[in-house]
């Protein structure tokens, strides 16, 4: 593995993959990218997970509680840059990844398409069993 970690900005739905599909996205990301990885979660995504825990039914809330645990254990929570604070979370994710030469980890089809249009590589779940990288690594 390369000594310089690659940054991966993680979306809420990507954090639920381990609970929903039993796939360790952290280990699989490092295997796929063949690099050490620094997983980043924007504070706005952390708030989104907390909100979903409070607003979801018991079954769905379990996925978000697991996501919250993984976020604390495996990710670095980073503040949203001041100029992006008022932007929608999806826009924050794309812009943050773009500015930082990072990969965006999401399963949101619309978000993936928008990220790819501006050259941000996207990590996604494919076939419920493996991760896939769209685009070139920075």
Tell me what you see in this structure.
This protein is of the alpha/beta class and 138 residues long. The protein has one domain: Rossmann fold (3-Layer(aba) Sandwich). The protein is built from 7 helices and 6 strands; from the N terminus they run E-H-H-H-E-H-H-E-H-E-H-E-E. Strands 3-2-1-4-5-6 form a 6-stranded mixed beta sheet, sandwiched between helices. The radius of gyration is 14 Å and the shape is globular.
In short:
By secondary structure, the chain is an alpha/beta fold.
Set out the fold topology.
Layout: E1 2-10, H1 12-15, H2 17-21, H3 25-33, E2 35-42, H4 43-55, H5 58-74, E3 76-78, H6 89-99, E4 103-105, H7 109-117, E5 122-126, E6 130-134
Parallel strand pairs: 1-2, 1-4, 2-3, 4-5
Antiparallel strand pairs: 5-6
Helix pairs in contact: 4-5
If you consult CATH, what is the topology? Answer: Rossmann fold
The fraction of residues in strands falls at 15-25%
Highest-level CATH class: Alpha Beta
Average per-residue pLDDT, rounded, comes to 93
- The number of helices is 7
Q: What is the name of the CATH architecture?
A: 3-Layer(aba) Sandwich
Percent helix, as a range, is: 40-55%
**Structural class label:** alpha/beta
Task: Characterize the main sheet.
Answer: 6 strands, mixed
Structural domain count? 1
Compute the separation of the termini in Å.
Answer: 15 Å
Kindly list the characteristics that best describe this protein:
single chain, Rossmann fold, 6-stranded mixed sheet, globular
């Amino acid at each position: 593995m390369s000594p310089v970690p690659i940054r991966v900005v993680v979306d809420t739905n990507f954090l639920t993959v381990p609970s929903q599909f039993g796939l360790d996205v952290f280990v699989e990301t490092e295997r796929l990218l063949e690099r050490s990885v620094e997983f980043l979660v924007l504070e706005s995504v952390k708030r989104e997970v907390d909100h979903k825990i409070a607003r979801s039914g018991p079954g769905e809330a379990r996925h978000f509680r697991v996501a919250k645990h993984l976020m604390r254990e495996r990710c670095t929570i980073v503040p949203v840059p001041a100029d992006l604070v008022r932007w929608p979370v999806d826009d924050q994710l794309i812009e943050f990844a773009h500015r930082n030469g990072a990969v965006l980890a999401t399963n949101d089809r619309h978000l993936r398409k928008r990220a790819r249009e501006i050259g941000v590589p996207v990590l996604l779940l494919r076939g419920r069993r493996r991760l896939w990288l769209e685009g070139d690594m920075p």
